[in-house]
Amino acid sequence: xxxIYSQSYNAYFNIASxxxxxxxxxxxxxxxxxxxPSIIVGRxxxxxxxxxxxYVKKNQIPVVRRLSGGGAVFHDIxxxxxxxxxxxxxxxxxxxxxxxxxxxDVLQTLGVNAVLEGRNDLTIDGxxxxxxxxxxxxxxxxxxxxxxxxSKLDDVAQALNANPEKFNDKAVKSIKSxxxxxxxxxxxxxxxxxxxxxxxKHVADMYDDAKYYELIDGDIIAIHKLVDEKYANxxxxxxxxxxxxFTKTIQTKGGSLQVSIAAKNNIIEKVIFYGDFFTIKDIxxxxxxxxxxxxxxxxxxxxxxNHPANEYFENIDNDDILKAFF
Length: 326
Prior knowledge:
Elements: E1 2-5, H1 11-24, E2 29-33, E3 38-41, H2 47-50, H3 53-58, E4 63-65, E5 73-75, E6 79-86, H4 97-109, E7 114-117, E8 121-124, E9 127-137, E10 140-148, H5 153-159, E11 167-169, H6 192-206, E12 211-212, H7 217-231, H8 234-237, E13 243-252, E14 255-264, E15 267-275, H9 283-288, H10 297-306, H11 318-325
Parallel strand pairs: 1-2, 1-12, 3-4
Antiparallel strand pairs: 2-6, 3-5, 6-10, 7-8, 8-9, 9-10, 11-13, 13-14, 14-15
Helix pairs in contact: 1-7
C-alpha cells in the first residue's frame, strides 16, 4: 500500500493523479489531497446543469470531471479528499462500507459520531459531510470521497446553486443535502493538517506493507501531461456526450428575452429567441450564427464580439445575451 499526500492544491492535477495512479502503479494506493476552490462533477453529469455559472465565472473556479459517477461536489482547502485504489478485486463488493470505515473509525476515536447513511453519504446527526463514489477498471477499484472539515459552506451552496428547471436532459442530477463541517462536532478542535495526519497513520496501521511515497519528477511530468490532454480540456469537462434542451428567460431594457437551445455534446444545434423585444435586423439570421458553437461562456462571448447584440435588438446588449445563455 503506497500512501501519498499531495503537495498540490490544483484540482486538475489532483483529479488527474487518481487516473495516473490507477493506470501506472501496481500497488494499492491511499491518496489524500486538498484542492483550492473547484467543482468536481461526476462522469455522467451535464456540467453546466450542475453549476452556478455566473458565480463560477466571477470567482474563476475550475470545473473538473472525474472518472467516477455520482453528483457534483465543491472543494476548497477546508475539504479533505481521500482515495483508495485497490488491485485485483475479482469479486467487487457492493456499497461503500469497506473503504469509508477507516474514516469513520478515525472520527469515532475523536469523539465524532459519524455514520454511513443511505447509499454513499457519511453523516453526523443526519447532516452530510462526505459523498463517496467509485470507478472500476477490470479488477481494480478506485473509491474516493470528500470530507467537509472546515469548508466555507456558503461557497458550497452558491457554487452548486444551478437551476435544474432550465434543463431537459437525461444526465444524472446531483441531490442536494443538508451539509456540515466535521470540525463543528469535535469536543476539541484540531487543524486539518493534524486531522489528515491522524487519518494517514490509521490507514498505515491497517496495512502491513504500507509505505509513504513522494512523487518523483517522472510522475509529475506524466500527470501534467494528462492534465493538458484531458483534465483541463473543455471536451472532457463540458462536452461529454450529453444531449439537452435549455431554456432561460430574463428581463432587459428592451423587454423580455427567452433563449431556447438544443445542444448535442454541448455543441449548439439550434437557438430560438422569444420575447416582446423589438428588432433592428432579422433575428432568424442571428440565431443561425450560434449553430455549431460550443455552449461555453468564452465561446459565446467571442462570437458576440464579432456579432454584437445591439446590431440586431433594440436595447439588448451582449451582456444580456450572455446572461440568457447561462
